[in-house]
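Run folding on both entries below.
>entry_1
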Amino acid sequence: MTLTSWYNNKQHLHDGGLIDIKKAVIIYESIHHKNTEKVINYISEQLPIKILKLQDIKTLELKEFDLIILASGIYYNRLHAGILKWLKSINIKDKEIGILYTCGFRYKDYSKKIRKYVIDNGAKYIGNCWCRGYDTYGFLSKIGGIAKNHPNNQNLNKIKKQVENWIL
C-alpha cells in the first residue's frame, strides 16, 4: 500500500488488527537551522500525515482533518509568531490540536501561550512533544552553538512515537 493510499484510508493494520486512525496535518515553520523541518519530514515519511509550511496553508480545508499538529522552532522563547497569528484567523472550536517544537535547550514549556489559546477557544489540546535542535542564536554563535547533531535518530524516533500515539 502506498503512503498516499494509506493516508486516504482511515483503517490501518496495527499490531495484527484493523484500527481507525485520525487524519492529521502538520502546520509548521522552520527557519534557522531547519531542525523542525527535519523532524516533520521524518515523521511524514514514517506516518500517514500531511505536512504544510505555514505560508502554504491559505487554501487548507480544516474540516477534512481530525488532528492539527502545530510545529515550530523556538524564536525569542516562543513558537513562531505566525503560528498563533494563523490560529487566531481560523475557527478551531472542537478541533484536536497538538504542539511539536525543537529548541536548543528546554528550560520552560514553550507551548504554554498557544496551549492556553487553544483551550480558551474550544479546541481539544492533546499535548506537546519536543526535542533538542542545533542552536546558534545570539551569543551561542560565539561558542559554536549548542545541541550539535540534534535532532538525532533518538530524537526523531521519540517524536514519531508521540505523534503516532496522537493519530491512533
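>entry_2
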Amino acid sequence: MRFLIVFLCLLNFSGKGNILAQNSSPEQKVVREACASHDTVVQYTVENAALFQEGNIEKFRAYVMKHIHYPFDAMNSLTSGKVVVRFVVDWDGKVKEVFILKSSGILSFDKEVVRVVKQSPRWMPANNSGVCVPQLFVLPVEFRHLGIFDKR
C-alpha cells in the first residue's frame, strides 16, 4: 500500500505538463512546457512571447477587428479615429490593466476598444527560462468610416 501511494505521488508530480498549441498549418506545432513558477513583474521583452490562440499579436489584432463594433454615434457623424491601447497578459494568460495610451478624442471609440480587449479569451503566457511572466502589449486600433451609410 505504501509503495502504491508513493508511486501515485511520483506519477502526479513527475509529469512536465506540456502545453500544446497549433499554428494555422497542421504540421507546425508550438510546444511549450508548463511554467515551473511565475513572476509578477511586467516584462516588455521576453524569451517566449505570449501567444493568442496559437498566434502572435497579429492574430489578436484580427480578433479585435472581428469583434469590434463601429459605434453608432460615430457612424452617424461620419467620424474616424485611432485609439492606442496598452494591456498586460498576466502570468496566468488573463488580460488585465487595459489602458488607453492615446485616445482618438471620441469616447465611444475608446470604450469599444477597451470592451473588446477586456473580453479577450486567455492567452498562453509569456515565459523567461520556464518562468511565466506578465507581458506588456501596445496595440493601435484604427476606426475608418468609408462614407457609406444610409441615414434612413
